[in-house]
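Figure 2 data, in text form.
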Amino acid sequence: MQHEDCTGQSGKCYGADRAAPWYIEEKKAAEALAAKLGYDKVSEEKRDVSLKIRDYVIGGGFMFAMCSATDSFDIALAVEGIDICEPMFDGDASDPGYQAKVDFSKTFAFKNFTLERSPTVYEFSSIDMTRKRRIPFETDYFTLKEYSAKWDPIPSMLCQNHTALVKGFMGQTTSYDSKVMKSNVLIMGENLTNNEARYIHGIKGKGFFTFYGGHDPEDYRHRVGDPKTELELHPNSPGYRLILNNVLFPAARKKKQKT
């Protein structure tokens, strides 16, 4: 999943884009799909999809998500049964005092975060570091950690690359505040200068998940309407290599040990 809004708040694009034709059409399409599936609200449909993904992972599946599909997924799990959407998103008011009702025990990766209440702010919560970053483009890099293929085969596979230093890139969710990370989550890529995690992995039930901050590794500030990246122009992209690692990861098989 990438750039998904699992909370049903139209990507939190209302503030800047509510009059844009693409926003209006996407909102209408999302509402029509929810209605077709028997839901009164997009947020309810998104919630059930998130719960299905959660159950898939717990049952032994693997989930890879990028950008806003990472933090909004955890938020959707944490606010199950709570209305956090304002009227412009679902037609009625949000639940009073919903922040106090957030259940962090339901999330995969994050805890103790504060939800962004304003519908005009392009942000879901305090998980994301985008608005808190003070890193110049020229020095925006994150470092991959090194793992033993023998003792840590999964993070070793997921971090496999030709360099340990990866150029940073922005997104609606660019990176994660280390202060709201659960203790059982493995931070595989980070920018220590800004105390932010960029690439994380964890176990949930019998399955695994990997969250990767940012939108497009070869387009530093990808915006709506920007042309797509031509992948053939970036055959050695370390940022895209991490995506490939996750695409190939489910095909990996543990080598049988001699008994």
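Caption note: DSSP finds seven helices and seven strands in the chain.
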